[in-house]
Specification:
Length: 227
């Protein structure tokens, strides 16, 4: 039995010459892709270092790879790097949580009340069209230079797009399902909790994936301007 099993197993592993060529070419292509990716990265770092040393780039503004590495080593030795990374991580997670909770709640309110949505929708579109860093200096002036300001600035980067996208997705639910709820005696809250929200779980998750990146960008913008 074991011999037969090995024979069948060996036959299943046999592949044609064309398949072997395809696998070989695919692996070669992957190696070249990795090589060019690494080459681009090394070339960029080398050009950055050379232009900074020659004075083409302002080393005070753009720094240089050697200075960055030196600073990382120094901050790691003193424990400052982990401390600041931890602060940035907490600010990112806090803003990410607020963006998702507030975005979903605001989208539900706009979906629930058409009058409110008609009033606020133009303002949301205008605010979303602003540059992502436009509101951060205003918040620093209003709220001061602190962690709260950085979180608010990070929230402002993602909140408007979140509300607009979720609100639009809420209105794309199949009308037949909504009519069925009302036909069976359901109310608007039943439509919300049994049709709209369950039907938009994929879009909510997709928006959350976008928001984690935007939250980090917003925190970095806030920290840069508040520094």
């Amino acid at each position: 039995m074991s011999r037969m099993h090995k024979q069948v197993e060996g036959e299943s592993l046999n592949i044609s010459a064309a398949q072997q060529d395809f696998i070989r070419n695919h692996r070669t292509q992957l190696r070249w892709v990795r090589f060019y990716q690494l080459l681009i990265l090394i070339s960029f770092i080398a050009a950055w270092e050379i232009t900074a040393r020659l004075g083409i780039l302002n080393s005070f503004v753009f720094s240089s790879p050697s200075r960055v590495i030196k600073t990382i080593v120094q901050m790691t030795a003193t424990g400052q790097l982990l401390y600041h990374v931890g602060i940035t991580l907490l600010e990112t997670l806090g803003s990410f949580f607020l963006v998702n909770v507030l975005g979903i709640l605001m989208a539900i309110i706009l979906w629930w009340n058409n009058s409110i949505s008609k009033v606020l929708e133009p303002y949301l579109i205008v605010l979303n069209s602003l540059p992502k860093s436009a509101l951060a200096p205003v918040f620093i002036v209003w709220l001061g230079n602190n962690v709260k300001t950085i979180i608010v600035a990070a929230v402002s980067v993602a909140i408007f797009a979140t509300v607009i996208n979720l609100y639009s997705n809420f209105h794309e639910v199949e009308e037949d399902k909504i009519k069925l709820i009302y036909t069976l005696g359901g109310k608007k809250k039943d439509v919300l909790f049994k049709v709209v929200l369950p039907g938009n779980i994929p879009s909510i998750i997709s928006q959350m994936k976008v928001n984690i990146g935007l939250s980090l960008v917003g925190v970095i913008i806030g920290e840069f301007l508040a520094a």
